[in-house]
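Researcher: Next entry in the queue.
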Amino acid sequence: MGREITKVGVVGLGTMGSGIAEVLARSGLEVTGVEVNEECAARGRGHIEGSTERAVRKGKLDEGERDALLRRIRYVTSLHELADADLVVEAIPESLELKAEVFAQLDKITGPETVLASNTSALSITEIGVHTTRPGKVVGMHFFNPAPVLRLIEVVRTVVTEPEVVTEVTAFAERLGKTPVVIGDRAGFIANALLFGYLNHAVRMYEQHYAGREDLDAAMRLGCGYPMGPLALLDLIGLDTAYEILDTMYHQSRDRLHSPAPLLKQMITAGLLGRKSGRGFYTYEAPDSPVITADGQATESASEGEARPVATVGVVGTGTMATGIVEVFARRGYPVLLRARSAEKAAAAVAKVGKSLDKAVSKGRMSGEDAEATLNRITPVVEFAGLTEADLVIEAVAEDLAVKRAVFAALDEVAKPGAVLATTTSSLPVIECAAATTRPGAVLGLHFFNPAPVMKLVEVVSTIATEPEVLATGRAVCAAVGKHPVRCGDRAGFIVNALLFPYLNDAVKMLEAHYARAEDIDTAMKVGCGLPMGPFELLDVVGLDVSLAIQRTLYDEFREAGFAPAPLLEHLVTAGRLGRKTGKGFRDYTQRAS
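Model: Structure for this entry, 594 residues:
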């Protein structure tokens, strides 16, 4: 087509539509905003004036730029004012009937070359487009909220959208300073399709009392580096909006994992919509306030007993996780007994800790005296009997249940009465380790994250046999070494892996279906959702073999069809493409290294 877009219409000036109008006007475009009546138009104007006033206060606009921007937007109440528009972006509520009616009217009012775009986040562009005589010129332009801030735009093509329309709209998005990704027409597109399955899974965890709201949110913020936890994010999005998106996705995919958790419907019925109503999963100072207030529903440990005193800590293992945990406790002043299978392995493990401490000294994070004192608190032992004085023993050996059970059986014979025994497993059943002892009530999971000296999160896993004071001891000792403990039950994946890996698996399935490129999926999740890494970047870092093993564990435990590992993931592992560690995974790193 090649023509330049200069006149743009925006239908609907709610939060999303007013944000889109502001983005367009910031780029120098003449914008016509349409609302159903003068009152709604005035409200839309208020949104834009308030947003641009905040931008001036923050130094992102000057007064002159703001005045010019505001002059470029006119507010009307008739679609007929869009007759000469080059592009119209619809941003009305998520109702197929309403959108179809608007597009049918726009089709009659605008010129034959006008491109009609919908900002829908989940509805079918194809179903919207068939209500016009020009489905080839109908496309999705899914902006993300807040539109003036977030850079991602999902450009959604249908099977009949003209290629030149896609090219033109993509170039236009870039002209707006946005990052466009081009995708096909399916429920949720990229970002929502991957995000909302994860959010729904978190709601089910909360609904089942598997983990509390603060623990769920802290786990994903601290364990994955997400900007917000899932329940806090749902409150921000709005539970009613989330329900509509999930329901639309479910009716297209028939995937049970997209079926909205019953708790969502109950909360919506009760008027608990999130921030906008002042209460959702959390309670807020006022409607639309981001400030959370105490509501008496915080996840506390009333059922926990009094923590046992821990003076000496034992660690079994010499790998990266084991030496990291040794360093964590030794740096906090605990005498640590490091058990290795041989004197040579013990010496190498202590040397590894020393190397890490030297690095901290060189970066000015600790003094040489403190590093030496830390190292002197570590005592290597070869026999399990060397752990008899430990008040807490943490097993950090290979993720092999038979090996772990053997370690716990040996610890059971030597550990003193009252000692707490912990496993660092990331996915195996803690109760299996406990069952290898005669003291299952003294066993719990302490899942540290790698690298242990850096990552603040520890998942504290209680089994059906764990005694209350043992759980309290685990939480207390984590806090004592500067970690953030989150409590959960004993089932595959605990919190972080159980939420993270199905999302990664869904991304692989999306790639496998040729719906979008790996690069575009990664971009959508980083730019649209603020995640630190895209799913394929993360899979390559974690290792595809590790990811597959965890996904199989989740599927074997829950027997959920949606958790079945993506065939593409299995094929790549079979082919030896395991990610960064082998040079090839979803990307090829061999050329970059040379």
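Model: The two ends are 42 Å apart (CA to CA).
Researcher: Noted, moving on.
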